[in-house]
Design a protein that fits this description.
By secondary structure, this protein is α+β, with helices and mostly antiparallel strands. The strands form four sheets. It has an eight-stranded mixed sheet, sandwiched between helices. A five-stranded antiparallel sheet has the order 6-5-4-3-7. It has a three-stranded antiparallel sheet with strand order 8-9-10, with helices on one face. Helix 7 links the parallel strand 16 and strand 17. The protein is globular.
């Protein structure tokens, strides 16, 4: 990174640059041996009490004491991705939300409060895509009360790392006592190459409905109640895939929601004893071909950052990270 002007390090940012993407250099005791400085790039989310807070694209927050700052400048937004389809954050956020609809929802300005009897954080969290119409403290008080009335923990879903994402909201949540619990990547890819994969799909069964057999493989949420079926069957055009296994439990399953140009892939799970046989690839290929038949051209999915096996699989299919999303939970006293 180039910070110099006339051969000298310069600080070219001020507190007026909060909300902008910046690159900074600071003195640190944690730098590698023999090094004096460390660098950080992200959104400047606050500059209060002589402390800078920078939120990286991953959602990680970096705190820098003002006396340690030796250089800084604003930088342009990250360049548009060349791999895969183009997509804005609001477009993709709304497509992913339509594919996982809650049982109950309520609007608070441009925020949507969602509840589904506790089935997944996505279906039981606030989706904030604009102004709640209230000061942030009042909006969060309303959110806490809404979830408390339903005997559910209060979550807010946010995003970082793309043009128009919510780094400032993440910092505000942190200041108001909310804590980040889970983070994941939203990845996108062109759909046609997935449908063109050389995979044996002869055993794949596709259905419009989710049955008890499919749910037996989808076990991570225990006994499925009405909310589970409601959320899983929601969406503009929903498909379920399964591969027969031993007994009444499929060897592999998957879910796809087709919504205009987008095909969203979820719940791709394989029997641990059947892994490394290409079943996940076959499930996604079959679903991709059906989505292509319905006119979709782009794909998205969500994967947790520590799921190395799934990330490697999706890398091979051409999926690239678009942004990170996070769930913040109210840290009750």
């Amino acid at each position: 990174m180039e910070f110099t002007g006339g051969g000298r390090l310069e600080i070219r940012i001020t507190s007026a640059d909060v909300g902008k993407r910046v690159s900074v250099r600071c003195v640190t005791d944690s730098a590698a041996e023999g090094e004096k400085f460390t660098d950080a790039v992200g959104v400047l989310t606050s500059w209060d009490n002589s402390v800078l807070l920078i939120t990286r694209k991953s959602g990680e927050s970096v705190r820098i004491a003002e006396p340690a700052l030796v250089a800084g400048k604003t930088v342009p937004p990250a360049p548009a991705r060349r791999r895969g389809p183009s997509a804005t954050f609001p477009e993709l956020a709304r497509a992913t939300a339509r594919a996982w609809r809650p049982v109950e929802s309520e609007e608070l300005g441009e925020w949507t409060l969602r509840a589904s009897d506790g089935f997944t954080r996505r279906a039981n969290s606030v989706l904030p895509l604009g102004d709640p119409g209230l000061p942030i403290a009042d909006a969060l008080t309303h959110v806490r009360a809404w979830y408390e009335a339903r005997r559910l923990p209060a979550y807010v879903q946010t995003a970082t790392g793309a043009e128009g994402t919510q780094e400032l909201l993440c910092a505000a949540l942190d200041r108001h006592g909310w804590r980040r619990e889970v983070s994941a990547e939203v990845r996108i890819a062109a759909l046609a190459p997935i449908g063109d994969l050389d995979a044996d799909i002869s055993a794949i069964r596709l259905s419009r409905t989710v049955d008890d057999t499919w749910l037996r493989r989808y076990q991570r949420f225990g006994e499925p109640g009405p909310a589970v079926r409601s959320v899983l069957t929601s969406g503009p055009s929903v498909w379920f895939a399964s591969v027969p296994g031993t007994g009444e439990v499929p060897a592999a399953i998957g879910r796809c929601v087709v919504d205009g140009r987008w095909a969203g892939f979820m719940a791709v799970e394989v029997d641990p004893e059947q892994r490394r046989r290409g079943l996940a690839t076959a499930v996604m290929t079959a679903l991709a071909r059906r989505a292509l038949d319905e006119g979709a051209s782009a794909a998205w999915l969500q994967v947790e950052a520590d799921n190395d096996g799934a990330r490697a699989l999706y890398d091979g299919m051409g999926f690239a990270p678009h942004h990170h999303y996070h769930h913040y939970r109210w840290a009750e006293a």
